Amino acid sequence: MIPGSFSYHRPTSVAEAAGLIAQHADTARILAGGQSLIPMMKLRLAAPEHLIDMAAVAELKGIERKGDSLLIGAMTTQHELIASGLIAETVPIIRETSLLVADPQVRYLGTLGGNLANGDPGNDMPAIMLCLDAGYRLVGRGGERIVKAREFYKGTYATALADAEILAGIAIPIPPVGHGFAYEKLKRKIGDYATAAAGVVLTAAGGKISSCAIGLSNLADTPIYAQAAGAAVLGRSLDAPTIAAAVKAARALMAPAADTRGSVEYRTYVGGVMVERALKRAFARARR
Amino acid sequence: MNTAVLTREQREAKLEGMGCKRKRVEDIRFTQGKGNYIDDLKLPGMLFGDFVRSQYAHARIKRIDSSKAKQVPGVLAVLTAEELKGVNLAWMPTLAGDVQMVLADGKVLFQNQEIAFVVAEDRYAAADGVEAVEVEYEELPVIVDPFKSMAADAPVLREDLAGKSSGAHGARKHHNHIFEWTVGDKAATDAAFANAEVTIKELISYHRTHPSPLETCQCVASFDKIKGELTVYGTFQAPHVIRTVAALISKIPEHKIHVISPDIGGGFGNKVGAYPGYICAIVASIVTGKPVKWVEDRIENLTTTSFARDYHMTTEIAASKDGKVTGLRVHVLADHGGFDACADPSKFPAGFFAIVTGSYDFPVAHVAVDGVYTNKAPGGVAYRCSLRVTEAAYAIERGMDILAQKLGMDPAELRLKNFIKREQFPYQSALGWEYDSGDYHTAMNKALEAVGYQALRAEQAAKREAFKRGETREIMGIGLCFFTEIVGAGPSKNCDVLGLAMFDSCEIRVHPTGSAVARMGSKSQGQGHETTYAQIIASEIGIPADDIAVEEGNTDTAPYGIGTFGSRSTPVAGAAIAMACRKIRNKAQMIAAYLLEVHESDLEWDVDGFRVKGLPEKFKGMKEIVWAAYHSPPPGMEPGLEAVSYYDPPNMTYPFGAYICVMDIDVDTGVYQVRRFYALDDCGTRINPMIIEGQVHGGLTEAFAIAMGQEIRYDEIGNVVGGSFMDFFLPTAVETPKWETDHTVTPSPHHPIGAKGVGESPNVGGVPAFSNAVNDAFSFLGTRHIQMPHDYWRNWTVANQLGLHD
Amino acid sequence: MTKSQVRMHVNGRAVEALVEPRTLLIHFLREHLNLTGAHIGCDTTHCGACTVDLDGKSVKSCTMFAIQAEGATIATIEGMANADGSLSALQEGFRMEHGLQCGFCTPGMIMRAHRLLKENPNPSEEEIRFGISGNLCRCTGYQNIVKAIEYAAAKLRDTPQKEAAE
C-alpha cells in the first residue's frame, strides 16, 4: 500500500523531460496519469528512484485537426477524449472505447499516452489505434520520429520506444465520413481489463465492405492488428459465411493468456464473438 | 403547556416508534465525513505496526533476519514469535476451541501468514521496515484440496497437535482432522433411504469467499504503564468478548482493560474474532510504552482474516414418487484452513448447520460434519452466514431443485407439497430445533403471484423450444429459494462463546427532563441501531425517539453483551431493550398511580402515558412521570428512573422468505442478465421498514456476488488467486441488479416484541435463488447440478461441454 | 528522503506543508490536514472510498501523490455542508433515501455524485449507475444510493444555484 521513496521532477517542456529521462535512464519512470504506474508502485512492483511528472508539459496536451489528421497530445486524458466534440465528430470509435476504459475517476486522470505507451496487453486504446493506422510521435534527445502503431508493440511491456524516448503525440488519419465503427469489450465488470475485445473500423458502399480494419485487445501479449480478418470481409456484404471467415481468421491470431478472466479456449472463443458483434455493429452504423 | 389536543395517531407519529421509516441518526455524521473509524484515531506518540508475511503456504521458518529492518529510519522494533513467547502470547486461543499462531512459530501454514511485526513511527517507515526483513524458508508439501487432507500419506500440518487424538470437539480421526460432529437419528434416516422410492445424492459445494467489509480490520492499542491499564480501540463486533479474552490471555485484570469500538465500516462477521494484529499491537504497546496502531490493507484482509464457507456437502434426499420427502442425509467436509478460528458457539463446531432441513417437514434426518485442516487462511464462519446457515440453505434449496428435476415436478409445487404447515408451529425439526412460527404457504403463494410464475414458466417453455430450433442463443432460468433460517444466538442452555452464555443486555436511564440514554451489549457496524433501538424504546415507554441517545461499543459503559453477528441484535438485544423498557414502564405506572391517586390496575398504557380506565381525562404523560421520579417519588420507592435487563433468549428465532430470480444467459459468452429478483422476507415484527429494505438490498448484493463469481481460490501450491479487488468480484452499481422487496409478518411468539431479525436472510436466501436460476436455465439440456460460482467463464464452459459451440 | 513543499487549496483554505514525494494525497488529507472523511478501502484503486474533487475532477486520492496536487483546488466531504451548517442537497438526499449504512463509502460516494451532477444535472438511473461505477459499496446494494442522487438532482434543479461556477 505504501510506495518506496523516489525523487520527484516536474519538467515544463518535452526537451527538459527528455533530458531527465536520459540522465536517469532506467532508474526513472514517466508519470502521466499515474493510474497504472501508481498502483504498481503501491504494491512495490515498480520502484523507480526518479519520477518524471509530465503534467506541466503543456506541449503534450491538445486535440486538433490538421488537414486529414487528428492530432492528440499524449497527456490528453480519457475524460478529455470523451468530452471532445471534434473526436465525437471525426473519430467516434475513440470515444466509444474510452468510455469502456476503467471508471470515471480513473478516466479523469488516465492519459491516452499512458494507455498506449505502456505496452500492457490489457489496455484498450492500442487496438483501436491499430485499426485507425495511427502514427506515434516519439521524441528523444536526438530529435523525433514517427512510428506506426502497427509497428510499435513488440511484447508484454515491450515497445519500439527507445531508451530515453517519450511518446509525445498521436496522429490519426481521419476515417471517411459515414464510416462504421464499434468497440466490443467483454469484461467481468466495469473497470476490468478485457476478457476479450475487438475494435472495427470499416467503410462500405453498395452494401459491400470497401475497407475494414480489426484490432484485438488482451488476446495476446500485444494488441493484435487482425489483417487477415479484415481482408476476409472485403468486397462482401456482412452475411453469415463472411462473418464466420473473419472470426476464424481472427481467432487464428489470438494467443490469450490463461488467467482469472478465463482459459485460452474461452477467451479465444469469446474473442471471436466480439469480432462478430463489432463487425455487425460497425456495418449497421456505416453508410452503405 | 401543550394546548393542542393531538389524536392518538399524531401522538404515535411524534414518537417515531416501531414501524415507521425513521430517518437515521447516524447519517448526520456519516454524510459529513465525521464518523469515528479506527484509522481516524490519532493518539499522542502513536506508533504504527505492520506485518512481514509468508510467501509460502507451508514452510519451516529457518531464519528471520530483522537487522536491516531495524536500521530503517523510523523503525523502533521488530517482534517475532520469540518475543511473544516471553509473554506467552505466541499462540492465542480461537473461538472454536483451537489455538492459532499469532506470529509464525517455527513454521507457517498458509500464504501471507504473519511472521514478524514491525513497529515504526509512521506507516511509511513501517512499510519500509517490512520490506527489509529477510526470511529464509524451507518449503513443505502443501494441501489445498480438503478431500486429500485425510489421505494416509497427507503431510502433517499441525505439528503442535502431534499425538493429540482428541480436540475441543471430541476424537480426531487423522492428524489433519479437527472434529466430527453429528446430529439426528442415523438409524431411522438410513432406513428411510433404504425404503425410499426416489432418492437424490449430490455433492453440493459452497466455495470459499470472504466478507470484505469496506473498512478492513484495525485497532489502536494503548497500554498505560503507570496505571497498568490497557485500552484497545478496534473494529470489534463483540467488544466485551474481546475484553474478556484479552484479560484471560494477558493476565491484565478485566477491570483494567478498556475496549472501545467506535464506528465500524461494515462487519459482516469479519470482525468478530481476534486477529494477530490486535495481539501484536497490544504487545507492542506494552513493550514501547506508546499507543500502537495496526491497520491491515485489503490484500491482507482478503487473504488472512476470517474467510467464509468452504463447505462440501454431500446432500441426499429420500422421497416418495409423488414428491413427499421422507428423509434427509448430509455429510459435510468442512475446510477450516490452517487453524479452526470459527466464531461458533462452543457446542456447535458446525454452527447451526442443523437447520438444513430448511422449510420442509422431514420426518427423519441425519447430518455428519468432518472438519479438516488445509494450507489456507483460518476461519470459516463469517459473511452474514448466521453461523453456517448460508451453507445449509444452499444445500437444501439446491437439493430440492435436484429432486424436483428427478421427479419431473415443478420446483414450486415440490416445495408447497413439503412445507411445514402453519398449524405445525412451534415445529420440532428432525435435527433438534424448535421453529418458533411460520406461514410458508402464504408467503410462497404471494411470491409466486407477484412474479407471475405460471406465465414465466410458459415463457421459459417457449424459449426452450426456440433455442432447440436455433432461433435464439439465450436460455432462461427461474431460480426459487424458500429459506428458513435460524438466528438470535442464543439460549444459555446450549449457546456459549468461550463459556460466556449468549445473552444480551440493555441499560436505560431516563433523565429528569424526559430524555434518555440507553446502552446495549450489541455493536452496530451499519445496521442503524442508534436509530432502530430508539424506536423500540419510544414505543415501549412513550418518549420520542429523538430524545433517546443510543450508545454501544464502549465496554466501560455498556452492559455486557456478546455483540452483533448472526442477526442476533434484534432477537436478543432487542428483547433486552423491551424488557428493560417494561421495568421502566412498570415503575412509571406506579408513579402515575400515585400521582393520579388510583390503584395501578386502574391504569392503562396509552402511547405516551397512563390513563385511568373509563376516565379518559385522567392522564399522566411520561414527561410528568419522569420529573416526579426525580422530584417526588412515591413513599418507599427509590428515586430515579432506570433499568437494566440481561436477556437470555428462550429459543432462537426463525425468519423465512421466498425469493425468486429470473435470469437469461447467453450461451456463447456465458454472460447472464438478472432480469428480475423478487425477495419476500418475513422477519416478524418490523421495527423500521426502510432499514429492513436496506438490509435486504445489501445482503442480496452480497449473495449476487458470491453466487456469480466472487471467490477466494488457491492454486496447487497454495498461492492465493484473486486476493485483491482486481479479481475478487465486488459488483459496481452497473452490475448489481435491481431488487424488489416484499414481506409478510409472522411474529415470533416467544420474543417480547415479536421480532426475528433480518440482516442475514438476504445472503442466506439470495445465493440459492441465483444458483437455482442458473441451474434451471441449463437443466433442459441435461445438466443436474452446476457448481457455483456462476461467472461468465464457467457458464460458457458448461455450454461448451454440452456441445453448444460445435 | 528530502521533503518538498506543497501548496494547495482545500475546502476553500490555503494549505502549505512539507511532504515526502511519495506521500499519497489520501494520507496527506487524512493525516496532515486531519480531514478523515475520505477513507481507504483497498490497495488497487478499485473502491473509490478515497474520492475527492480536485480542479473540477473526481479523483481517487489514493492514486495520486500529494506533490502532484501542487496548486490544486480540492473539495472534500468536510466542505460540502452549507455555510449555515445545514446539509447539502446530496447529504440530505443520502439521509432521506437511506443511501448509506456503515458510512464508510459515503464521503467518496457523495464527492463523486457531486461532480457527476455537475457533469450531468439530470441523469437517468442508468447514467447514475455508470457515473458511480468507480465507487464500491458493501452495505446498500446501490439502489438507495441511486435514489439519493436522484433526490439531490431534483432538489438542485429546483433551487437557484448560488455557488460560484466550478
Can you put this structure into words, describing what you see?
The complex is a heterotrimer of chains A (288), B (806) and C (166). Chain A has three domains: 44 residues, Uridine Diphospho-n-acetylenolpyruvylglucosamine Reductase, domain 2; 114 residues, Uridine Diphospho-n-acetylenolpyruvylglucosamine Reductase, domain 3; 106 residues, 2-Layer Sandwich (Enolase-like, domain 1), CATH 3.30.390. In chain A, a hairpin with a 2-residue loop joins strand 8 and strand 9. Chain A is built from twelve helices and 14 strands. Chain A is of the alpha+beta class and 288 residues long. In chain B, a hairpin with a 5-residue loop joins strand 33 and strand 34. Chain B contains 19 helices and 37 strands. The mean pLDDT of chain B is 97. Chain B has a seven-stranded mixed beta sheet with strand order 3-7-1-16-13-14-15, sandwiched between helices. In chain B, strands 11, 12, 17, 18, 19 and 20 form a six-stranded mixed beta sheet that branches. Chain C is of the alpha+beta class. A five-stranded mixed beta sheet of chain C has the order 2-1-5-3-4, with helices on both faces. Chain C is globular. Helix content of chain C is 32%, strand content 15%. Chain C starts with a strand and ends in an 8-residue tail after the last helix. Chain C is built from five helices and five strands, in the order E-E-H-E-E-E-H-H-H-H. Chain C has two domains: 76 residues, Ubiquitin-like (UB roll); 70 residues, Orthogonal Bundle (DNA polymerase, domain 1). The interface between B and C is large, with 56 and 59 residues.
Order of strands across the widest beta sheet of chain B? 3-7-1-16-13-14-15
* CATH homologous superfamily identity of the largest domain in chain B: Aldehyde oxidase/xanthine dehydrogenase, molybdopterin binding domain
**What value does the average pLDDT of chain B take?**
97
Tell me the distance between the termini of chain B.
84 Å
